Amino acid sequence: MAITDILSAKDIESALSSCQAADSFNYKSFFSTVGLSSKTPDQIKKVFGILDQDKSGFIEEEELQLFLKNFSSSARVLTVAETKAFLSAGDTDGDGKIGVEEFQSLVKA
């Protein structure tokens, strides 16, 4: 499944252009612009499956750093500060990674 099966290419392009500069990534505005915030829990779960590159059932810090690349191969990697802030916002149980339920909550926050 491609991410464009769930999200529109136009919305993805718009969301990525809003965070091209280093340290400009804001997960709330990104999720909103890309259209993920308005998707069903099942659709959000499918996007989680795409982001979970190693299929471990979690999005770990390394996968988060490459988060934008899942939307476009030409997108930048997140900075260390952006990655840490994203992880701390999503990791509600403190295990150092984001599970599917945590991701769904983060998207809807």
From TrEMBL:
One of its GO terms (cellular component) is cytoplasm. It holds the Pfam family EF-hand_7. Residues 39-74, 78-109 form the EF-hand domain. PROSITE patterns: EF_HAND_1, EF_HAND_2. Gene3D superfamilies: EF-hand. It comes from the Eukaryota. Ca(2+) 2 binds at D91, D93, D95, K97, E102. Ca(2+) 1 binds at D52, D54, S56, F58, E63. GO terms for molecular function: calcium ion binding. Keywords: Calcium, Metal-binding, Repeat. Belongs to the parvalbumin family. In muscle, parvalbumin is thought to be involved in relaxation after contraction. It binds two calcium ions. This is Parvalbumin. It comes from Tinamus guttatus (White-throated tinamou). The lineage of its organism: Eukaryota, Metazoa, Chordata, Craniata, Vertebrata.
